[in-house]
Amino acid sequence: MATPAQDIAISPNRLARTVSNTLSVSPTATFHSPPNSFGGAGFVRTRTTGEKQLKPFDTQDIKILLLENVNESGRQKLAEQGYQVEALKTSLPEEELIEKIRDVHVIGIRSKTKLNERVLREAKNLIVVGCFCIGTNQVDLEYAAKHGIAVFNSPFANSRSVAELVIGEIIVLARQLGDRSNELHNGTWNKVSSGCWEIRGKTLGIIGYGHIGSQLSVLAEAMGMSVIYYDVVNLMALGTATQVPTLEQLLNEADFVTCHVPELPETKNMISAPQFEHMKKGSYLINASRGSVIDIPALINASRSGKIAGAALDVYPSEPAANGDYFTNSLNQWAEELRSLKNIILSPHIGGSTEEAQRAIGFEVSEALIRYVNSGATLGAVNLPEVTLRSLTLEERNHARIIYIHHNVPGVLRKVNEILGDHNVDKQITDNKNEVAYLMADISNVNSSDIKEISDNLEGLSSRILTRVLF
Ligand SMILES: NC(=O)C1=CN([C@@H]2O[C@H](COP(=O)(O)OP(=O)(O)OC[C@H]3O[C@@H](n4cnc5c(N)ncnc54)[C@H](O)[C@@H]3O)[C@@H](O)[C@H]2O)C=CC1
Ligand SMILES: O=C(O)CCC(=O)C(=O)O
């Protein structure tokens, strides 16, 4: 038998074939018989660490759809696992998405693809969603959890990029640099200082002091700004920043107001006509969070009246699906009016679009997906309880990992353990989030015929949402 070190050296194709030592049962997937290698002399190890690599079923059977130009680092990592990966540069119209999603076990998206109930209902084989971004508002997280679909994101890999963009925008707005640049592009020299300012000594008001807001706070202070912030949570101030108790106070005091809150019902139109009233005359507004946070017609009025001296928007209620698409009134009815305003920076949702951020997100999210597909660990999942078990080792032959996602109702553990009762349950862990519970158990003394029986019995329980057996 090959030693683990020798196994590492085998060709990728052979590796992909030979690691097919596990199976998974989803509500609709057909049962995959354990390969002959299960428990036999041909059992192949893929790591040198003594850790046994579990695989859900033949690796080449795992189908992954990546949309919205997910970074190559992520695509490559997933492909290296032997999975079938299809990567598209754009998001898809809903009907096309529904056609495609029926077939896949894993989908990777960014902020544009809407995985709503209508779409997820058709995703019969889907076990996991990777949001290659921070925001997860584009996914119906509750529906996904109730159907055993885990959702992962990258909680802070692009935070710094957004914070740096905002610093740039503060200076560009204060100096009317966008307008000057446009004028000169059009052949007009217009050297002015009226209404142009240094940012030193000005007050930055940050709404939402999370990963991005707090990072921005540090950068802004380093540039000589005073920072105040408003957040629904009481949070430790960095540097000499100060938390203010109300949004109104922040709006009254800030020269620059910047929004870094998630898309929630409570943050919809958080800055609308009454809030513009509270802002200082000649102040500036920045939004690189979500398009729903600012009432754009109210912003257009505030700009036309001179209440605000400028604004920078990176996000919009409706955003084009692909590069090259038009940003016109057919997309947002006020688009052309917005485009005509003075000292308004409009960027195409690029807050997190840097090489550094996209590469890091590609690695981070693809790793979470691989971990989930191969070992069932939910660490970092945003909609399921976070559950993990230490890896099975190479010595643990004829062990299987049971993953049972179920409704959180009384008596389930007893029934599950009755089903697992003929085997030694080496380790078991369970946790719940809202109405959904996630159970992982490693059992030993399992042979290939037991696996189908265990799986069928678990699938027969009324509490079952999704069963997977990895070995
Ligand atoms: N333009 C872009 O490319 C990007 C945009 N984003 C957006 O930025 C948002 C913020 O990102 P992070 O800082 O990482 O999120 P975070 O979750 O770390 O911080 C959000 C903060 O907002 C606070 N908050 C929630 N509701 C609030 C309310 N009603 N009023 C005041 N504060 C409230 C929270 O308590 C939290 O401190 C994301 O949800 C995402 O939508 C994120 C990355 C890139
Ligand atoms: O880069 C993207 O596509 C989305 C960035 C973003 O808005 C996020 O990370 O939430």
UniProtKB/TrEMBL annotation:
The keyword tRNA processing does not apply. GO terms for biological process: L-serine biosynthetic process. PROSITE patterns: D_2_HYDROXYACID_DH_1, D_2_HYDROXYACID_DH_3. Gene3D superfamilies: 3.30.70.260, NAD(P)-binding Rossmann-like Domain (3.40.50.720). Residues 64-383 form the D-isomer specific 2-hydroxyacid dehydrogenase catalytic domain. Coiled coil: none annotated. Pathway: Amino-acid biosynthesis; L-serine biosynthesis; L-serine from 3-phospho-D-glycerate: step 1/3. Belongs to the D-isomer specific 2-hydroxyacid dehydrogenase family. This is 2-oxoglutarate reductase. It comes from Coleophoma cylindrospora.
